[in-house]
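Suppose a classmate hands you a notebook page containing two proteins, each written out with its sequence and a corresponding row of structure tokens. How would you begin to make sense of it? This section walks through that situation. The first entry is reproduced here exactly as it would appear on such a page.
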Amino acid sequence: MVEVGLHPNAFTCSTYIEGLCSHKRSDSGYEALRAFRAEKWPIDTFTYTAVIRGFCSEMKLKEATRNLLQALALHKDMVSNGIKTNCVILSSILQCMCEMGMVSEAVDQFKEFRDLGIFLDKVLYNIVVDALCKQGKVEEAVELLNEMEGRHMPLDVVNYTTLINGYCLQGKLVDAKNIFQKMKEKGVEPDIITYNVLVGGFSRNGLAEEALELLNCM
């Protein structure tokens, strides 16, 4: 391409790198990004997104920590070069950390992103809320959801269901049912997943009649 006098644009670069990363060749994608940058070819958010998502998706046991560190370093490099980050990149990083059991680190990283003034969407909040609930840290999850509402992001069925699941996992079924009632009062309709979570919670705790009542309400 260059030999015939044509120079790649940002779309060309990101498409090439996306192709490498989608075939689990994120190391090659990273090397290509570095080479393109050295040649001063146009690199944009999508190019970085492809490599960071690639690293985060290749979570083989031996390479997981290395890939995560590379993703974090690449994100820092991206921001320092004046390229705007996005929620796709951030959610990939946080999801990766949570899957590795690094819940506390994910929460700290989430707060660091927030303190930098980066916009955090519902998906990002729910990744951390879900991780906290599964770790039994439901009160911390509630704090994050309250913060979310304070930022004028009303809770949706996914957020409420995540919290209900957290309470069910702890055996706090009164709290779980209270959240179930609250979401309906707020005009958020429970979906099949919400009912499944609550029915499962009641059943696991020996409350078969309550579970049956919920099934009859569906």
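The notebook's second entry, a different protein, reads as follows.
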Amino acid sequence: MPNPKKKKKLPPISSVSLRPELSHPPAGATHLRPSRRRRLPPEPQPPSGRRPKPPQPRLLRELSMVQFKNRYLVMEVFVDPNRETGESDPIVLSSLNISKAIKDSLQLNFGECGLASCLGSFQVKYVNHVTKLCVIRASRDAHQKVWAAITLVRTIGRCPVSFNLLDLSGSIKACKRAALECDEAKFEQYKLVAGDKVTPEIENSVKNNFEKIKLLEN
């Protein structure tokens, strides 16, 4: 029988490069240095005695830029419309009793959920007890509900009242301009009706209220 073919002996693994293309650099290639990390400039240090502010989350930054839209209602109040002209007012209007009457009307006509949906931005910003003028702020989404509740108010305390809308504004600047014009016109009308009953104290009180209108803010 013929002898089986002898297997060729392979050189040891240590003498053979597994990746010959990496064992020697290609011809003409220069020696490559390992890349170094670029050093960043040092962070500025806060002044002595002050702590650096923590980074503000992105969501909070976006929410801080959102401006809530409001509506401003300039209303006149008729206190006891059936009483005779010249009689003294049976009640003194204030932001507290007007606000309470409107909230009671909201709860009575729209329920607790309707009241809660309107309380976010609701506020009686200004009241003039002489001219019976008031400014009410409500959110843009709930101002019609607040307006409806105001028209349904029939009494403040035990005194019959009724409200009338004079102006509806979307900015405090337009509201102040309209409220000042209406308040001045109503005070002139009040002086014609009251006559000699207009004292210097009443005039000073009304002038102070005019200045309050100019200082109204959101």
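A careful reader of the second entry would note: The chain has six helices and five strands.
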